[in-house]
Amino acid sequence: MLLAMMEKVFDEDFYRKLESISIKVRMTLTDGAAGGRKSKAKGSSVEFSDFREYTPGDDFRRVDWNAFGRFDKLFLRLFMEEREALLNIFCDCSKSMDYGEKNKAAMSLRIAGIMTYLALNNLDRVCLNRLTESTLVPSSSFMGKSSFKKALQFLESGSFTGNTNLAASLKRKDLKSRGISVVISDFFTSGSIDEVIKYLAFKKQQIILIQVLSEDEINPQLGGQVRLVDSETAEEMNLTITPKLLKTYNQKLKTLQSGIKSSAKKYGGVFFQLSTSDSLEKIVFEDFTREGIV
Predict the structure, then answer these.
(1) Which residue, 143, 146, 117, is CA-closest to 26?
(2) Residue 71 needs a FRET pair 20 to 30 A away by CA distance; which of 33, 112, 132, 177 works?
């Protein structure tokens, strides 16, 4: 099981919220980006560009019936200002993600599910990627709303274990075309996060980095003598937690976050932090909107 002794990640409540999100929000991740998606241009300024084969769930109004008459197959018309985007979502599946009363792994999977749904609803293609240790497990390419449940099944089929080297794992993905790359992680990783960002920039990706942390990690409520156990290595450490030590921890966390944000911004990307205590509505309608994701 993905998350033992835990409620199902994609339950009825998740689907109800997703329906609300789909009504209120349109995903515009690559608006204005090279090789991007929908332009606001209408009428004669929208020029024909290419065909692709129909996938169940696609808009029938885009079907070229003349092509169907010739080839006995359904094809969609694509336009210069309305090309589909390829969205790659990379999920950190290290053991440190499976942490917190409100679980980081569950939240990261829900975020991946929301982004997948919005992209498929906008006729984009999605590939999901699980990062574990120094390996990468990619899904097939999902297209059309009918493939959404298969995408969720892929997300739920993995496990959170080991110590993920984000750079080593992610660089196993040969990104052959421009697109959007979303990395969902706590970014407590071995290896260089700068290396991740530079690789995605070299591959001409629009970069979105989402840090998922528990409230215990954002505002630790510890004091006195404690024994800390590393969830990935099982290494133990005895510490005396003082206000000065907590202040140092908060400064180190802010330094990590500001460094990632600065590096992402250098290449036109965005970085932001979410809490597992945040509601899905806040994440989509406030955080995603603020960062220009929706």
Answers:
(1) 117
(2) 177
For residues 129 and 173, is the Cβ–Cβ distance under 8 A? yes
248-271 pLDDT tens trace: 989 999 999 999 999 999 999 999
- Taken in order of first residue, the domains within the chain and their CATH numbers are 12-27+83-290 (3.40.50.410)
Place of tokens 């290290």: 94
**How far is it, in rounded angstroms, from Cα 199 to Cα 267?**
11
Positive/negative CA dihedral, 143, 145, 149, 153:
positive
The CA–CA distances, whole Å, from 194 to 54, 157, 213, 264 equal: 39, 29, 20, 8
Q: Facing residues of 241 across strands?
A: 224
Which has the minimum average pLDDT: 70-79, 169-178, 274-283? Answer: 70-79
94 neighbors 163 (Cβ within 8 angstroms): yes
For residue 86, list its beta bridge partners. Answer: 125
Record the tokens describing residue 37, joined without a space.
């998606």
What values do phi and psi take at 18, rounded to 5?
-65, -40
How confident is the model over 133-165, as pLDDT tens digits?
A: 889 999 999 988 889 999 999 998 888 988 889
Structure tokens at 199: 């690789």
CA distance 293 to 208: 9
Global pTM reads: 0.78
